[in-house]
Amino acid sequence: MKLVFYGAGNMAHAIFTGIVNSNVIDSNDIYLTNRSNEQALKDYAEQLGVNYSYDDEALLAKADYVFIGTKPYDFETLAERIRPYITDKNKFISIMAGLPMDYIREQLDTKNPVARIMPNTNAHVGHSVTGISFSSNFGATSKDEVDNLINAFGSAIEVPEDNLHQVTAITGSGPAFLYHVFEQYVTAGTRLGLEKDQVEESIRNLIIGTSKMIERSELSMGQLRKNITSKGGTTQAGLNALSEYDIEGIFEDCLRSAVNRSIELSNQDDD
Ligand SMILES: NC(=O)c1ccc[n+]([C@@H]2O[C@H](COP(=O)([O-])OP(=O)(O)OC[C@H]3O[C@@H](n4cnc5c(N)ncnc54)[C@H](OP(=O)(O)O)[C@@H]3O)[C@@H](O)[C@H]2O)c1
């Protein structure tokens, strides 16, 4: 199986690095290309043992899976570049946010199978939660192959294409929402009188430790919380204060706003 990456930027880098490091396929079967930054491709080739090329005809002649990792606004130029060389064996995997499969196929002038994936930045540490949807002509074996590739940099959740907006909100933008909550926690912590650096360092370790507890436990998050909340104790006092606010409603607003923006952006791209 041969993979070609059109675009070797921030997100594509996390993806092909995860795939190489997990040994799902030989690094020699991975080919990179981009617009013009050849030095970046050289560096990746040296570091990871992957190949790079600007010969589209040769790249597409061998590609089983073609990852499209440009920004959405660069896609039309990319489509023009590769359209003449697409072969029947090419299955496309778009990592571009917002661009519908129908539009991608129209621009590429192909009926070949297309998948859309919505990874998140945690792909850099092998922990992306990646939403995926497949065109109806994506065969079962190919779906399994793509799932394997995605599991190389985290976990996959398959959804109908329309639901990628929700995935974009919950896990695509999710790291930023959690960072924001953690930032507020640090600010509040410093108001209690400890040094800011001390508080920040403690909270980083608190978050890492709590994530590991979630990872290792089969209990729900609610149960993990109950297990450390004694009646009448300090944790209970803090939680009582939190329950005065509609935290669930705040997060619902946050997620609905992100979903609406994702829908708006994909409609703009349709225009
Ligand atoms: N960053 C995230 O957290 C995230 C999450 C989910 C989805 N995404 C999606 O991932 C995509 C890429 O984002 P990014 O942050 O990785 O972008 P990026 O770092 O700017 O990388 C863009 C890449 O596309 C290449 N490119 C541009 N035009 C091209 C062309 N005509 N032919 C071939 N390659 C071309 C660029 O090459 P040069 O360097 O040579 O210009 C560069 O390698 C976006 O569509 C975004 O929606 C990103």
UniProtKB/TrEMBL annotation:
Q: Which reaction does it catalyse?
A: L-proline + NADP(+) = (S)-1-pyrroline-5-carboxylate + NADPH + 2 H(+); L-proline + NAD(+) = (S)-1-pyrroline-5-carboxylate + NADH + 2 H(+)
Q: Which residues form the Pyrroline-5-carboxylate reductase dimerisation domain?
A: 161-265
GO cellular component terms, alphabetically, are: cytoplasm
Which GO terms label this protein's molecular function in UniProt? pyrroline-5-carboxylate reductase activity
Q: Which keywords are on file for this protein? A: Amino-acid biosynthesis, Cytoplasm, NADP, Oxidoreductase, Proline biosynthesis
EC class of this enzyme? oxidoreductase
> Which top-level group of life is the source organism from?
Bacteria
Localization (cell)? Cytoplasm
Domain Pyrroline-5-carboxylate reductase catalytic N-terminal: start-end pairs: 3-98
What EC number(s) has UniProt assigned to this enzyme? 1.5.1.2
Q: Pathway it acts in? A: Amino-acid biosynthesis; L-proline biosynthesis; L-proline from L-glutamate 5-semialdehyde: step 1/1
One of this protein's GO BP terms?
A: L-proline biosynthetic process
InterPro entries linked: 6-PGluconate_DH-like_C_sf (IPR008927), NAD(P)-bd_dom_sf (IPR036291), P5C_Rdtase_cat_N (IPR028939), P5CR_dimer (IPR029036), Pyrroline-COOH_reductase (IPR000304)
Q: Which PANTHER family match?
A: PYRROLINE-5-CARBOXYLATE REDUCTASE, PYRROLINE-5-CARBOXYLATE REDUCTASE 3
Free-text function comment from the UniProt entry: Catalyzes the reduction of 1-pyrroline-5-carboxylate (PCA) to L-proline.
| Family classification | Belongs to the pyrroline-5-carboxylate reductase family.
Among HAMAP family, the record links this protein to: P5C_reductase
Q: What is this protein called?
A: Pyrroline-5-carboxylate reductase
Q: Which organism is this protein's natural source?
A: Staphylococcus lloydii
